[in-house]
Amino acid sequence: MNKHAIIETMICGLRPTRRKPISDYHMHTPLCGHASGQPEEYADHALKMGLKEIGFSDHAPFVVKPLPGITMKMEELPLYHKMIEDARAGFKGRLEIRVGIEADFIPGYEKKTKTILDAYPYDYVIGSVHFIKDWGFDNPEEREKWSEHDVNAVYRDYFELLRASAESKLYDIIAHPDLVKKFGNRATADMTAETEETARVFKKAGVAVEINTSGRRKTVGEMYPALKDLTIYCKAGVPLTFGSDAHKPEEVGCDFDKAVDLAKKAGYKEYVMFKNRKVYRTVQL
Ligand code: ZN
Ligand code: FE
Ligand code: FE
Ligand code: ZN
170, 251, 259, 273 — which has fewest CB within 10 A? Predict the structure, then answer.
């Protein structure tokens, strides 16, 4: 391991181990306006972390109106695909690079979202709930709005949107399925039934769920989803992927040793990899 890799290893607490997943399916590019580093730098770091396959999943153009600094613009989609194609060519034979995208679920805008997603081919589409009505509940700039809401109502609205996102058939993987906890706001009521219903809907809709390690780098200080929720997804038979949600190259593969521990504790024996919007490989944990 070179010096750079050792330093990054210290940052992420990741010791090279054969047990960690080989694919990281959630990372961004500067096109969204709040991530840094070129795709080649993400790929370089992936190799240092021992990954065999990565997929980019930058924030798709927002369907309601342009959101500068949060998502790509429509006009940037061709460049997004070109950047990934170039990186893929440069790393051929060393690292598989998939083309994904992370698209917000906004009820009422399913058809428009589909049009955006159908404009280019993807290996997978990640669905995300970052908005409840027009409140970006995980946006640091809108954090103070939590005080205007009943926390249990926010959690219930969030899970309802998660279920609707899976049922929309727009997505292959549902991202960070308890993102609502990001700032440490915790439901005071028991949300077990909400998660169980969500897991049942995910299974029926045929979507996978991700372990997203980025929560460890946020106020809440733990991955999405929590062990209790992940256990429910596992019991329901929902397939699993891994994502760092890297917004800079050195976050690729971050905490994947801990992610694999979480997956195993939850009961998962395998995870899946995507190509052309289909599971093409199942890997034992
Ligand atoms: Zn982002
Ligand atoms: Fe997200
Ligand atoms: Fe993301
Ligand atoms: Zn994300």
Answer: 170
Question: What residues flank ion ligand 3 with Cβ within 5 A?
Answer: 102, 245
Helix (H, G, I), strand (E, B) or coil at 4: helix
On whether the CB atoms of residues 266 and 227 are closer than 8 A, the answer is yes
Distance from C-alpha of 279 to C-alpha of 268, rounded to nearest angstrom: 16
pLDDT tier, 192 (very low <50, low <70, confident <90, very high otherwise):
very high
Of the listed ligands, the closest to the CA of 57 is 3
CB atoms within 10 A of CB 164: 15
What pLDDT does 19 receive? 78
Across the beta sheet with 208-212, the strand order is 23-24, 53-56, 96-104, 124-128, 173-174, 208-212, 240-243
- Find the 27 Cα to ligand 3 centroid distance in Å: 6
CATH classification (class only), 23-284 = alpha beta
> For residue range 223-256, what is the model confidence (pLDDT) as tens digits?
999 999 999 999 999 999 999 999 999 999 999 9
Q: Please state, for a pLDDT cut of 70, what percent of the chain lies above it.
A: 94
**Would you kindly state where each structural domain of the chain is located, as residue ranges?**
23-284
Residue 45 has pLDDT above 80, yes or no: yes
